[in-house]
């Protein structure tokens, strides 16, 4: 019995932590035309480009933005390189 407990604890400790997931996108508003580039943090279930679009569209749509495109999905390693470009829309949604 003790061997099973130790084995289970070892497996739990060895499980990799889930890496954070982000996407960058382009959006627009009409009348007058406004464009923005942004970065959002995604949940594990939307951490694919195909699933990210609907999640991002819902979030930004609350403020009247229309999603034009999801550019890419990436992890923490690429996050800081996108901060300056996204400006006010860096992790806003």
UniProtKB/TrEMBL annotation:
Signal peptide: 1-19
Keyword Signal among UniProt keywords: yes
Cited PROSITE patterns: PROKAR_LIPOPROTEIN (PS51257)
Keyword annotations: Signal
Name of the protein described by the UniProt record: DUF4177 domain-containing protein
């Amino acid at each position: 019995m003790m061997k099973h407990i130790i084995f289970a604890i070892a497996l739990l400790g060895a499980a990799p932590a889930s890496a954070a997931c982000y996407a960058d996108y382009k959006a627009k508003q009409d009348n007058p035309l406004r464009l923005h580039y942004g970065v959002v943090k995604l949940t594990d279930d939307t951490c694919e480009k195909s699933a990210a679009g609907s999640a991002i569209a819902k979030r930004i749509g609350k403020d009247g933005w229309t999603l034009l495109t999801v550019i890419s999905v990436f992890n923490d390693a690429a996050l800081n390189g996108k901060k300056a470009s996204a400006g006010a829309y860096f992790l806003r949604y």
